[in-house]
Every structure is written in C-alpha cells, then in structure tokens.
Amino acid sequence: MSFLKTLFRSRTKQVNMTICGLDKAGKTTILNYLVRGEYYETLPTMGVNRDTIDFPKLKINIFDLGGQEDFRGLWNQINEKSDALVFVVDSSDQFRLQESKEIFYNIVNTQINEGIPVLILLNKVDIDNRVSRAEFLEEFELLQNELPFSWACYETSAKTGSGIFDSFSWFIQTLKEV
Amino acid sequence: MKPTSMCLVQMGNKGLELVKSYPDVLPQTIIDEIVVKSMPLGAKDGDFTSNVISEDNAFSSYVFSIPSTFGRDNIGSLVAVFDNTNYSANDVRKLFSIIISELRNNNAVDITILAEILPTIFKSFGNKNVKIKISSVVTVEIDFTDEEKPMDTKEKIAKSLSDDMW
Q1: Is the terminal CB of chain A with fewer CB neighbours within 10 Å at N or C?
Q2: For residue A131, what are the domain limits?
Q3: Are A83 and A175 a contacting pair, CB within 8 Å?
Q4: What is the ipTM, given to two decimal places?
C-alpha cells in the first residue's frame, strides 16, 4: 500500500513559484484571488507570504515576496530556488515603471534559474489612466530583447478577477510541460 | 511597570520606519533594532511580540492595521520599551489591544492621532483608568478595574477549598 502511495505521490509534480514586483503592485491580492477566488483587502506584506495550491498532478508552493526596498534583500535567496516567476506591475503607476523595469531585469538576469517560465502581470487594469499592454511591452523592451526564458504578459485585475484565470492557465500549462 | 519609552512604527515607502518615540531618550542603535524587530516577518494585525534588545532592554509590541481612505490599509505597531525584563508582557498586550480596539470603535486608528496620543499612552501605564482625548469632542475612556475585579474573601476561600478538593 505504501509503495502505491509513493508511486501515486511521485506523479504529482511540485514546483516553487515566487511572486515579485514593487510594493503596492498587487502581489498579495493576486495570491488571495488565486487561493480563494475572490478579492480581499490586504496589508503590506511583512517579508514573505506563503501558500500552496493543489492542482491535479501539480502542487504549487507560492512565495509572495514583500516589495518594499528593505525586503528586496530576501528575494535572491528565494528566487534562486524557484521554478517559476510571476512579476507584477501596477499599470496605473506610470511614475514607477522605470523602477519596476530595473527590478525586473535584475531578477531575470541575476536571481532566477535559467529557462524557468516568467509570467508578467500588468495589474490594476480596472483603474483609468493606466499604461496599455503595448506601451508596457515597449517601455520594458520585452520585444526588442532576446530573453533566455519563456514569458507571457497579461493584463489583470485582482479586484475584478479579469485576466487572472487566462494568465495562470498559460502558466500552469507551461509548468506541467517543463 | 513604567516603560522607559514608547515607539510608534509603521510601514513606509521603503520599509519599516519610526513615526515617533516618547520620551525621545533611546539611542539610535536601539531604535533601529526596535523598528525591525517590532514587526517580525509574517506579522499581521493583532500580533503581539516581546523581545530582548541589547543587554538589559526589552520591549513588547502590538501590531495593528491602519485603515486608509485611499489605497490599501497600512500596518503599524505600538511598542513599549523597558530597561529590564521583569515587566508583565500580558499587561502590555491588554493595554495596547484595548486602546487600539477603542480607537477602532471611534474610527480613530490613524497614524497622526496615534502619534499625538503617544505621551498619554505612556503616562497611562499602571493606571486603572485611562482617558485619551482623540479630538476636541471625543475622549476615549478605558477602565481596567472591570477586567481585574478583585475576588472577595468568601470567593477566595471557596476557590481555595475547591482547589484543595480537586
């Protein structure tokens, strides 16, 4: 019986996923939406929030990392053990796009393992006066650069749930194939 | 059980930051340590923590959420710093949780209000009755005597007898 259990368990793939991005980008709200399926008010993350989602044959350990400058020193240790990265950008905060871009390239160039899938979420699309997906791709130079990993960029709102399902469907499918 | 100082800490743009300390008597190195340790990793609304700092100092802190009318709510902590470890952390927890709860009932959990009333909270340590003026018209009154009603002699004898029997 225990042999069968071991065999069954071994068929469930387990992956570690980190959620990074600037403070107030909506990382914890996205995590809450993924886990509970609805919007919840959040408080600033004190370091790391950890949660797990079980899919058939896939278990995802999620590490939601606090975005404040003082917590960014923790990111490297967690990102280097990660199998997948979600990078969240606040589409309504155009003043911090450059800061967000610098952090993104710092993570993908120095912290994550080669070849892991990267999901970029252009969050808070429910807010007016935001940057569009096309403008964002241009600003982040994602199409110009030859990036050594598979990536996708989706517009999301963790408040309304818009785009969350589509973006993570792509991500989960990619994770199952890796 | 008077603290040597009290601190108010909140999450700022870059990380945790001191809003105010009263009285302002603590060395910067101690303040820096308190700011980081008063809200440990994973801290959330309602958490209470006690810790020793440097050789003889200790502190207890109470974490609470700070509602915001725009954007998301923030997180902060009230900290009492002592020059010894012989204080009752439970009493500090009770005082802080009741103060925050009363302020919450009056929609007054606001960092500016908390900074203003910090000296009153400092002076209220050890008192059975605390009056905190939060605006020109609202005064929060907290009576701790109800919480710790002393047992009368008959009750004491009955409890002692019951303890002996069991």
Answers
A1: N
A2: 9-177
A3: yes
A4: 0.79
Query: Which of B9, B10, B11, B69 should we substitute to test contact with A (largest number of A Cβ atoms within 10 Å)?
Result: B11
Query: Which of the residues B14, B32, B35, B47 would you substitute to probe the A interface, choosing the one with the greatest number of A C-beta atoms within 10 Å?
Result: B14
Contact with chain A for residue B69, Cβ under 8 A: no
CA gap B71, B57 in Å, rounded: 37
Q: Across the interface, which of A24, A49, A71 has its CB nearest the CB of B15? A: A71
Q: Which pLDDT value is given to residue B71? A: 82
For residue A70, what are the contacts with CB-CB under 8 A and spacing of at least 6? B14, B15, B16
pLDDT digits (tens, 9 = 90+) for B94-134: 889 989 998 999 888 999 999 999 999 999 887 878 888 87
The domain total for chain A is 1
Q: Does B68 touch chain A (CB under 8 A)?
A: no
Q: How far away is chain B from the Cα of A176, in angstroms, using its nearest Cα?
A: 30
* Beta-sheet pairing, A58-65 with B129-133: unpaired
Residue A62's beta-bridge partner residues?
A: A17, A51
Q: In this complex, which of A42, A48, A69 lies closest to B14 when CB atoms are compared?
A: A69
Residue A33 included in any domain: yes
A1 within domain boundaries: no
Please report the pLDDT score of residue B153 as a whole number: 53
- The three-point CA angle A138-A142-A147 to 5° equals 165
- In chain A, whose CA is at the least distance from the CA of B13? A68
Query: Which pTM does this prediction carry?
Result: 0.84
- The CATH number given to whatever domain includes residue A28 is 3.40.50.300
